[in-house]
Specification:
By secondary structure, the protein is α/β, with parallel strands linked by helices. The protein is 48% helix and 14% strand.
Length: 175
């Protein structure tokens, strides 16, 4: 049963496509001790940069916290995107996105202040269902999602974690 559920979770994420939305919300991930984004995070950021370059996003929200290495994930993400050609003025840093729910709530507050209502999610394929649900509960109109084509063995653990977390998000009362 878990194998089928994990497969379904993966298919949902891998087949997700971005919709017509001006904002891309990029969920944070590990920053290396060198201050560079991890390979997983680089893949997310490259995906967000492609959305920007193609005109499918005019604003990118990068969210995370301060990692174990002592770096601000959003600052590292911003610097990487700027190096990829995304103007710094088109990037909003959220240093208080310590988890999925906080990222979505913070993105909603920023979007309200900037007059935006809809977004696409950029995260790993296995995280798309839960992050979509969380953003919708925060009041963000999620038009779609994009996941980088990136796989590592750690994804097997992450899929299992999502299989445990998603039901809690489904039954949790609206906040």
């Amino acid at each position: 049963m878990a194998l089928v559920a994990g497969g379904a979770l993966s298919v949902v994420g891998l087949t997700a496509k971005p919709g017509d939305a001006p904002v891309a919300i990029v969920f944070g991930s590990k920053v290396e001790t060198t201050g560079e984004p991890s390979k997983r995070l680089k893949a997310r950021l490259d995906t967000a940069a492609e959305l920007y370059e193609s005109g499918r996003a005019k604003l990118i929200i990068v969210s995370g916290g301060f990692g174990e290495a002592g770096f601000s994930e959003p600052r590292v993400m911003r610097d990487y995107l700027a190096g990829a050609g995304v103007p710094v003025g088109s990037i909003h840093e959220d240093d208080d996105g310590l988890n999925t729910g906080a990222t979505c709530a913070n993105a909603k507050a920023f979007m309200d202040s900037s007059g935006e209502t809809s977004a696409n999610i950029v995260t790993q394929y296995f995280h798309i269902p839960r992050s979509t649900l969380s953003c919708r509960r925060a009041g963000i109109d999620i038009e779609g999602a994009e996941s980088p084509r990136f796989f590592e063995l750690r994804d097997l653990y992450s899929i299992a974690r999502e299989l445990v977390a998603l039901p809690f998000y489904l039954i949790r009362p609206e906040s």
